[in-house]
Write a structure and sequence with these properties.
Layout lengths: L16 E3 L9 E5 L12 E2 L4 H13 L9 E5 L3 E2 L9 H8 L2 H17 L5 E6 L1 H13 L4 H4 L2 E7 L3 E2 H6 L4 E2 L8 E3 L3 E2 L15 E2 L22 E3 L6 E3 L7 E3 L4 E3 L20 H4 L13 H18 L5
Parallel strand pairs: 2-4, 2-6, 6-7, 7-10, 9-10, 11-16
Antiparallel strand pairs: 1-4, 3-5, 8-12, 13-14, 15-16
Helix pairs in contact: 3-4
Length: 322
């Protein structure tokens, strides 16, 4: 394993957990890694674990993403140092990768150590993450879990949205498997959501050789899933926690060349990431038609239902218990 950078955050202190249930009462857990949440122009390249901007953003993301799993899993979420989002427009992919392998990796691995040693108590678990959190989740699956198969075998599934799972990564990490259907276990569920106008455009989160699964029909081919298959689409509030339900529901089809999920339902264009006031600066980073903010919320209730299906499949396979 690569050496660590710096001293890890102390996860024995409750203040360093975004979510830490006092009395876990569900048979499965969720460990959640939030996306880029630090928008602090005064901070450096790496935000500290106690950065107020990051903590506010992380709480919003918890309510908008991890909440999909809350009815069926005990939610655990550490605060962890991460790359400052205000620096991303000026950073290359290599710059971001270098920074994430430093203090962010140190914290996330330490948090996972504490979770497995003190909190998990042998329960099966989900991983869920988004964007920068998913980049760290892929590190966990690749390096951390390779050396800890006893932990890895209890993973129901990892929902790593908003960053690419690639063919090269899967070849280099044969112990990691991409989801192929709605109820396979120990797999990675991954997609990036875009409009057709992003085809051929650069995106920091869409890598060559990306693979995806359709969040409505749970297929990996280009079969279109109509909006009628969507149990409910939402959009996240930007300034406070929670989601707003949409009258329109997103459709979904995999773009086999790009390895992304394409949404074409009319009326959703206003929710393109760079259409949000103040976010136009990110167009060179994500492209003109990225639904990056809606990777979870467009398919929120389908994600919840799929987690239930996978949890039931786990229970059936393991005799109804841990």
């Amino acid at each position: 394993m690569k050496p660590f950078t710096g001293v890890p955050t102390d996860y024995s202190q409750k203040k360093n957990w975004l979510a830490l249930p006092d009395r876990p009462d569900k048979t499965a857990d969720l460990v959640y890694l939030y996306p880029s949440a630090c928008f602090d122009f005064r901070a450096g390249e790496i935000c500290t674990a106690d950065n107020r901007s990051m903590r506010r953003g992380a709480k919003r993301s918890l309510s908008q993403q991890a909440s999909a799993f809350a009815p069926l899993a005990n939610v655990f979420a550490p605060f962890w140092r991460q790359v400052n989002a205000t620096k991303l427009p000026g950073m290359s992919f290599e710059d971001v990768d270098r920074a994430e392998w430093a203090e962010p990796r140190t914290d996330v691995y330490a948090a996972m150590d504490y979770y497995f040693e003190r909190l998990n108590r042998g329960r099966p678990y989900f991983l869920a993450s988004h964007s920068q959190g998913s980049r760290l989740c892929y590190m966990l699956l690749s390096e951390y879990m390779r050396e800890r198969p006893d932990y890895y075998k209890n993973m129901i599934a990892a929902y790593c949205l908003g960053d690419s799972l690639t063919k090269q990564y899967l070849e280099e990490n044969p112990h990691v498997k991409a989801a192929q259907k709605e109820d396979d276990l120990g797999v990675v569920v991954s997609w990036n959501t875009e409009g057709p106008e992003n085809r051929g455009k650069k995106s920091l989160v869409v890598a060559p050789g990306a693979v995806a699964i359709n969040p409505l029909n749970w297929r990996t081919d280009s079969t279109h899933a109509p909006a009628e298959d969507n149990l409910g689409s939402f959009v996240p509030h930007l300034l406070f926690p929670g989601l707003r339900r949409l009258r329109i529901r997103a459709d979904a089809a995999i773009d086999p060349e790009r390895g992304t999920v394409t949404v074409t339902e009319p009326g959703l264009e206003k929710y393109v990431f760079t259409a949000i006031p103040g976010f136009k600066v990110f167009e060179p980073v994500f492209g003109p038609a990225s639904y990056h903010m809606c990777d979870y919320s467009f398919f929120y209730l389908n994600i919840r239902e799929n987690a239930r299906v996978r949890a039931e499949a786990w229970s059936a396979k393991n005799g109804g218990g841990n």
